[in-house]
UniProtKB/TrEMBL annotation:
Name the record gives this protein: ABC transporter ATP-binding protein
UniProt superkingdom: Bacteria
CDD domains xref list: ABCF_EF-3
Location of the ABC transporter domain: 5-223, 287-515
SUPFAM superfamilies linked: P-loop containing nucleoside triphosphate hydrolases
Species of the source: Agromyces mediolanus (Corynebacterium mediolanum)
GO molecular function term, any single one: ATP binding
Keywords: ATP-binding, Coiled coil, Nucleotide-binding
SMART domains: AAA
InterPro entries: AAA+_ATPase, ABC_tran_C, ABC_tran_Xtn, ABC_transporter-like_ATP-bd, ABC_transporter-like_CS, ABCF_ATPase, P-loop_NTPase, Val-tRNA_synth_C_sf
Coiled coil, from the record: 552-618
Length: 620
């Protein structure tokens, strides 16, 4: 494979720290690289160095003659006075660019809800970001550098972008380097991973999943090496302590040997740990939406139905993900659950013990604490906190609690306004959990979090015993922390036994059957959800009509039985997972036996969901 560009011994310092030291990298044709690492470790800086946007203090970046480089950074670089058409295709006549299938695909995939002749400055921030991405992708590039390209894209948009980047070049042509926290996207697109940490860039083969496996193996080997080193150090220390107390000199070669044992020890990484916090008792009744609907006044008069005929009984310990296009009604649905929105039709019933907390996108919980130190914010809630229960209960000070969530001593004295986006998100989540809610709603919780922090938050949510509702475009997160998914389609809440894949198939079918949209490219754009027809197709309708009365009753009875069995199994699985914390972690046989039971139950649920889907298709 031909070499495209390379970086040799890059060194870069900021006033307070060294970002990179002696970094050497190469990019060849066919490379698809994902960059991961903690926030602030230099992922975006590395992209700018490789793209020539930033000069290193030492070292150099070399680019093969004639290589065309395109870059999407996190700043808004689109001219606000230009129209969308001018920003994306410039002054090219419509009959010219409309004849290019790549251009049509980009416009349809990214700008379906954007007015083609509208002014860029009048668009929302997310729309401007998508215009900038579209303007980049319609060009011809040998190398693409993308910094957080999935921001402001919904699940469909992310799936489209992954497909576009996979098909943009042949397997041995072009090169891609992308920074994103979307782990599903990394797995779909990337064949290699660069981890940025501690001033170096460490390469791994494969996408995110392969990177995690290799990193675990690397850490295991490092732990074994550390155990040997510690044993040697103990021997050296014992030798150095031998002899009379007044003796101060030792053979120099022994001192040198002891120093060599510790000279290559890397600094300790941030470790994020937060064991189970107290949760208010939750009864059998949580929140029931009974034939609920919401209408809003329409701009031209009359009303617009956002939700209708919603029947949702939220169970204790339920873990549900909510999908839907922007504007479909996800926030309205959450408003019904929290009480912020009153139903126009039907009713909402809440249990008397329910305590709901929402992790919002706006970080509103931190506004009043902007000038306070981080430690003072937590100390203002209580002077001490209890983690765990029973014999495992541990009492922590506010500072100790923050340290468990990855805050360093230096950061504890930092004003909230000076924290990074990821640090603010961590503090926001901690403050919410300290109110001891038993129903937690996460509204796009992945904003500003790196992949390590996302994994830590997911680990925390695994042990959180309350009811969890998640709205997110991060497919990996949804599939990781929730047990089931629902989608809002045509103002109705629909269960998705097939998960995100079923949702994408449903949306694709809508677009095929719903006609042209009203956004960019005069009909090339995706169809908005509110303008589609979700009635059953001819095959489903004929299947339903083909059932006799007795067959229909039998199918309905089996469907009800399957739903009850699925619900029972999911409760058993949730109870078994909660029980893992109480088991003796050294009793491997017991742990394996319990895990085998959970795996068997999950397999049965998957089979039942397939049957449920078949029955619903038969019944129309």
């Amino acid at each position: 494979m031909a070499h495209l560009l390379g970086a040799e011994r890059l060194h870069l310092e900021f006033p307070t720290r060294t970002v990179f030291d002696e970094v050497t990298l190469g990019l060849d044709e066919g490379d698809r690289i994902g960059i991961v690492g903690r926030n602030g470790d230099g992922k975006s800086t590395l992209l700018k160095l490789l793209a020539g946007r930033l000069e290193p203090d030492a070292g150099r970046v070399t680019v093969r003659r004639g290589v065309r480089i395109g870059m999407l950074d996190q700043t808004d670089t689109v001219d606000p006075d230009a129209t969308v058409a001018e920003a994306v295709v410039g002054g090219i006549d419509e009959h010219v660019w409309a004849g290019d299938p790549k251009v049509r695909d980009v416009i349809a995939g990214l700008l379906g809800d954007v007015p083609w002749d509208g002014r860029v400055g009048d668009l929302s921030g997310g729309q401007r970001r998508r215009v900038g991405l579209a303007a980049l992708l319609v060009g011809d590039w040998d190398v693409l550098f993308l910094d957080e390209p999935t921001n402001h894209l919904d699940v469909e948009g992310i799936a489209w972008l992954a497909r576009h980047l996979r098909e943009r070049w042949s397997r041995s042509d072009g090169a891609l380097v992308v920074v994103t926290h979307d782990r599903w996207f990394l797995d779909e697109v990337c064949t290699g991973t660069w981890e940025v940490h501690d001033g170096i860039v460490e390469p791994f083969e494969g996408g995110y999943a392969a990177y995690v496996l290799q990193r675990v193996e690397r850490d295991r080997m490092a732990a074994a090496s550390e155990a040997k080193r510690q044993n040697l150090m103990r021997k050296e220390l014992a030798w150095l302590r031998r002899g009379a107390p007044a003796r101060t000199s030792k053979p120099k070669f022994r001192i040198d040997a002891a120093n060599q044992l510790i000279e290559d020890v890397p600094p300790v990484r941030d470790r994020v740990e937060l064991s189970r916090l107290a949760v208010a008792r939750l009864g059998k009744d949580v929140v029931d939406l009974l034939d609920a609907g919401v209408d809003y006044p329409a701009p031209g008069g009359g009303t617009r139905t956002v939700l209708r005929d919603v029947e949702w009984r939220i169970a204790p310990g339920e873990r549900t993900g909510i999908l839907g296009v922007n504007g479909a009604g996800k926030s309205t649905l959450l408003g019904l659950v929290t009480g912020a929105v009153s139903p126009t039709h039907g009713r909402v019933k809440r249990g008397t013990t329910v305590r709901i907390a929402t992790l919002s996108q706006e970080l509103a919980e931190l506004a009043e604490w902007a000038d306070e130190r981080v430690s003072a914010v937590v100390a203002a809630q209580r002077t001490s906190y209890t983690i765990g229960s029973g014999s495992k209960a541990v009492e922590l000070t506010p500072g100790q609690l923050l340290e468990r969530l990855g805050f360093t001593n230096q950061q504890l004295a930092t004003p909230v306004r000076d924290l990074s986006g990821g640090q603010k998100r961590r503090l926001q989540l901690l403050l919410i959990l300290l109110t001891e809610p038993n129903v937690l709603i996460l509204d796009e919780p992945t904003n500003d979090l790196d992949t390590d922090m996302l994994a830590a938050i997911e680990d925390l949510l695994d042990s959180w015993p309350g009811t969890l509702l998640v709205v997110s475009h991060d497919r990996y997160l949804l599939e990781r922390v929730t047990d089931q998914q629902f989608a809002i389609v045509d103002a109705k809440l629909r269960h998705l036994p097939g998960g995100v894949d079923q949702y994408l198939e449903l949306r694709a079918a809508q677009q095929r059957g719903g006609g042209a949209g009203s956004g960019a490219a005069s009909g090339a754009a995706r169809v908005a959800a509110s303008g589609t027809d979700a009635s059953p197709g001819p095959a489903a309708a004929s299947a339903a009509l083909a059932l006799s009365g007795a067959e229909r009753r039998t199918a309905e009875k089996e469907l009800a039985s399957v739903e009850r069995r699925i619900e029972k199994l999911q409760q058993q699985i949730a109870a078994a997972r909660d029980g893992f914390a109480e088991l003796d972690q050294s009793d491997y046989e017991r742990l394996n036996a319990e895990m085998a039971k959970v795996t068997a139950a999950e397999q049965e649920v998957a089979e039942l969901e397939e049957r449920w889907f078949e029955l619903t298709e038969q019944l129309g």
